[in-house]
C-alpha cells in the first residue's frame, strides 16, 4: 500500500474512533462488534482496536508520546503533498471528501487518540507471546468443545429466546409451585438457599405455549442472575422428527458442552475434568464422549456454579433405547435432586409423559392456551415487528384490535396457529392482503393437525394396545368422527377397550376419559355433560380433508369390527352393563355398509352388497396377518376386486372386471392380487372363482410371496389343497428364499407341514438366503414334531446354515439337551465347525453345563481351535463368568490348565481379574501356574490388585505369588489402585512388600498418581508408609506443585500439612502461587495462604502472586490477594508493579480502589 493510501486509512480510522466517543460511551457492550467491523475495514487486529477504545473512553491520565506524534506529522505532510499534487489535476469529489475529514478532526483530538494508541501498541509488544498463547488455547478449547458435542444447541436456544415476550404468560410468576421452585427469583434477588422442590413440570397439549413458557422463564432467570455470581443455563429441545439425533448420549453430550462453555466464561482454561476425559480419549481420537462420561462430567461441573438450571423442552418426544447407559429423565432428576449441584430442572411435555410417570417429587403446572395469553402474545409481537404493516398497526389501535381478533378466531386455541397467523401478517403488504390470506389459515390449521397426527403415531406406546392396532388416539378420533350420535364417556371407553373375538370385557381396565383426551393430544374434549366431542370444529374438517379422509374412512371397518364383537358378547345382557347395545342395534349395519358400500356398490346391485356384508359379519377378524396387511393398505390403493375378495363376493368379479376394466391379476402397492387376498381371508369360493377366471396362481407380491405362501402362513389346509390341486409350485421361494415349508415351520403349522411333506416333489432341504433349511429352522424354534417329521423325510442333519451353524449348534446355543441328544443319536457330527471355527461345544459356552456334559460324554473334542487359534475357549469363557463346574468339567477331560490365549493370558489371569475366587481356587488345585506373565507383563496377582480383588489377592499370595512386579508400562501394582483410590487394597499390597518408591517411565512414583487423581486418603496412606513427599519427576516437579496446577485443593492442603516444601519452583521458575494462578484455581490459592505460604513470596522473576493474577486478568484472585494485604506497588525483577501488569481498565480501577483504601 502506498503512503497516501496508508495516511488516508489511518486518518479514517482515527476519525471513526473519535466520532464514536460520545455515541458509545455508555454502551460498552457494543465494543466487540464495533471492533470487529473496524478490524475488517482497516486490516487491524480486533483486540487492539477494542483496547484502544477502552483507553480513549475511560483513561484520562495517559501522557503524550512524541515519537508517535512525529509519525502523525509525517503522515500529515504526505497528505498535504497529496493535496498539492491534486490541485493541478482535480479528482471528482475527492477534495471535498478530504476536507470534510480534516474539518471533523481537531489536532487536539487526533494527538490524544494517537497518543493512547501508541501506548497501547507498546503494551501490546510486551504481550505478543501472551496473545499467541491465548489464541492457541482458544483453538484447542474449540476443538475439545466440538468433540464433546456437535449438536446445534445454539440455534435451538436462539429459537427459544425469539418466542419471549415480557407480558405473555406472566400469571406463572404468581403460582405457588413456581415460587417454591424459583425461590431465588423473588424480588429479582438471588438467594443463597436451595429450593426443596428442584423440579418443575409444565404440561399441556401441543400449541398451548409450553415453549413460550420456557422462553419466558429462561429470560427471567438470565436477567435475575446477570447481577453477579456464576450462573449456568442449559437447554435442550426434543423435536419429534429428530429422534435419531436426540438419544440419551446426544442429550447429555449437548448439556455437557453447554456447561463447559458456561464455565470458560468465568475461567478461560478448560476445567481439569474435561481435559482428563479428552486426554483419556487420546485427544479425541479414540471415540466420542459416552453418555456415562457426559453425566459424570455434568456432576463435576455443575457444583462449580452458584446456581445452575436445566430446561428440557418437549421431554415427551424422548424415546429411550434399550442400550442406553441411563434413562434421560432418571439422570436429569438425579442431577436436580443433588443439593451439592444447586441445580434445578424445568420440564415441558404433553399431559401424558411416560418419561415422568414414575416420578413423584416434583410440582406440576397444567397449561391451557387462553385467549388472553395469545392476545398479549400477538399484540407484543406486532409492536416488536419491523414489518411495515405492523408498524402501521402500532399507530392504529382500532385496526390492530380487528387484526388480533381475526387471528384469535382462526387459531383454534393454539399458540402455534396464532404465531402462523402473525407470520401471514408480517408477509402481507396491506390490510386487504392480510384479511384475504387469513381466510386460508385453514391450511395452516391443517398443518398443525397433521403435526398432531404424526405425534400421536410416533408416541404409540399404549401398553393396552399391540403394535398391529392403530394408536388409541387415532381410533378415538375416528370413532368420534363416524359416530352417528354423540358418544358418552362410558360408550367410548367400552368401544376403545373392545377387540374382535373377545369373549368378555374387563370393565376395570377401561381407559379413563382424561387418558383418552391425552391420547388425542387434546383434539377431543370431554364435556361437563359427560360426552366426547371435537375441541374445535376444524378438527372434523381436517379428518374429512383429502390428506386424511382415506385413513379415517378405512377405520370404519375397525369400528364395525368392535361393534360386531361387542354385540356378540353383550347378548342377553342389560343396557346398564353394556351401554353400547342400543347403539349397535341402531348403527352396526350402517358402519359396515359405509365401508364396503363405498368400495363396491357402483358395480353391483344392492342385494349383492347386502349378501357380501352378511358374509363379512361372519368373517374371523382376529387373524394378525389380515390386520397387518389392512393396516399397510390404509393409504387406499386397493382395487374394487380386492375388496370383493375380502368379503368373498365372487358374484362381483365379472361386473367389476366388465365395468371398470380391472385385470384379474391387478396388484396393489404391496404386489397383492385378488387371489392373494382371497387366500389370506380364507374365501374358498372366491379362490375357486378367481382360478376359473384364469387368475395367476404363481403371482408374487413385492416380497416374492405366492398365494401358496399366504395359505401356509395362515394355516388354511383347505386353501393349500385347492392351490396344490391346481399345480401351485410347492418349492417356490419368496424374496428371502423361503419356501412354503419354511413358512409352515416358522408359524408352527404342523398340519400344514404334514400336508406339504406328503407331496412327492417337495424339497426337504431347500435353502433360504441365510443358508437355513426347514430342518435348521425347526431345531432353532425347538419344534420337536417338525424335527422328527423332517428326519423321517430325509432332511440333512449336518447341514450348515446361517454363519455355518448346524442343527446341533442351534440346540447347544439354546441349551436344548433333549434335542441335542436326539440329533447325536441320529448321526449329527460332534466336531463340525462353523464359519468362525467354533464347534457345538463352543456354542454351549454360556454356562450350559448339562449340554457340555452331554457333548463330552458323547466324545466331543475339547481342544479344537477356532479361526483365531483360540483354545480352549470353554476354559477361558467359564473363567470370565466364574462357572466353576464347567471349568472343572473341561479340566477333568484333559484341557490344559496353563494354556494361553492370543493375549498371552491364562484362565487364572481372567479369574483373578474378575474376582472369581472359587474358580481361582479350582484352577490352583489343578496345578495352575501362579507367576505367569501375559503380553503386557501382567501376572494374575497384578490384575487382582489393579481391579481391587482383595480376597483374590490373599488366595494368590497364599499360593506363592510374588508381590514386587512391574508391567510393560513400567508401573507397579500400586499405580492402578491409586487411580481409583482403593486404600485398603493399597495397604494390603504395601504390607506384603510392594515398593512405594518405584518410578514409572515418567520417573514418577505412585504418590504422583494418587495426587493427580485427587485420591487424598490413598496419598496419605502412602506417606504413612514412607513415601517421599517432595519426590521429583523428570521435570523437577513435585506432587505439591502439580496439585496446585491441577486444582486439587484437598491434596494441596494434605501435602502442606504433611510437610511438603512450600518454596519449590517449577522449571520455569514459577512458585506454587504461580501455578495456581495460571490455571485460575482460587480454592488452591486460599489453601496455600491458609496453609502458611508467605503471601509476599516471589517466583524466579521476582513476581508475587498478585503480579501473576493481574497479568492473567483474574479479578477474583486479585481482590482476594488485596484483601489479604498483598501490596500492589511491589516490583518484580523488571521493576514493574501490579499496575504495570494490568491489561484492562477494570483491573486498574480495582487496584486503585485498594491502593486508595490503604493510603
Automatic annotation (TrEMBL):
Source organism of the structure: Thielaviopsis punctulata
Where does the chain cross the membrane? none
Source domain of life is: Eukaryota
Q: What is this protein called?
A: NACHT domain-containing protein
Source species taxonomy: Eukaryota, Fungi, Dikarya, Ascomycota, Pezizomycotina
- NACHT domain segment(s): 198-350
Q: Does the keyword Repeat apply?
A: yes
Q: Name the SUPFAM superfamilies on file.
A: Ankyrin repeat (SSF48403), P-loop containing nucleoside triphosphate hydrolases (SSF52540)
**PROSITE patterns per the UniProt record, alphabetical:** ANK_REP_REGION, ANK_REPEAT, NACHT
Which key words are in the record?
Answer: ANK repeat, Repeat
Q: ANK repeats: which residues?
A: 670-702, 703-735, 736-758, 770-802, 803-835, 843-867, 903-935, 936-968, 1002-1034, 1035-1067, 1068-1100, 1101-1133
